[in-house]
Amino acid sequence: MRAYILVNVRPGKVREVVSAMTQMEGVRHAEACWGQPDVFAYVETSDDRKLNQLVIDKIQKLEGVERTDTHIAVE
Predict the structure, then answer these.
(1) Residues 6+ positions from 70 with CB-CB distance below 8 Å
(2) The domain that contains 43 carries what CATH number?
(3) Which helix (H) or strand (E) holds 20?
(4) Do 5 and 35 contact (CB within 8 A), yes or no?
(5) pLDDT score of 75 more than 90
(6) Cβ contacts of 12-19, under 8 Å, gap ≥ 24
(7) I want to staple 6 with a disulfide (CB 3.0 to 4.6 A). Which of 1, 17, 37, 38 is the partner?
(8) What's the domain range around 39?
(9) What is this structure's pTM?
(10) How far is CA 42 from CA 12, 35, 50, in A?
(11) Residue 65 in 3-state DSSP?
(12) Which three-class secondary structure state does DSSP give residue 26?
């Protein structure tokens, strides 16, 4: 399962969030960006359960993360 995750982060936490995300299994690429959202990430997981765990149990629990917006790739 492939998805793009857009992440809004509290000021001053972007580098830490990107660094933590790039260490997570399934995160293929994460970059800090100017404007909103603060971080764009591309992820790949074996199924929707793993994607759910990655987003809800890992990314959303990172210090500084305020909001995520997940877009599942369909093709």
Answers:
(1) 3, 4, 5, 6, 51, 55
(2) 3.30.70.920
(3) helix 14-22
(4) no
(5) no
(6) 12/64, 13/63, 13/64, 13/65, 14/38, 14/39, 14/64, 16/62, 16/63, 16/64, 17/62, 17/63, 17/64, 17/65
(7) 37
(8) 2-72
(9) 0.94
(10) 22, 18, 14
(11) strand
(12) coil
pLDDT in tens, 9-65: 999 999 999 999 999 999 999 999 999 999 999 999 999 999 999 999 999 999 999
Backbone φ, ψ for residue 17 (5° rounding)? -65, -45
Number of domains present in the structure of the chain: 1
Separation between Cα atoms, residue 73 and residue 52, nearest integer Å: 15
Two tokens, residue 46: 């074996």
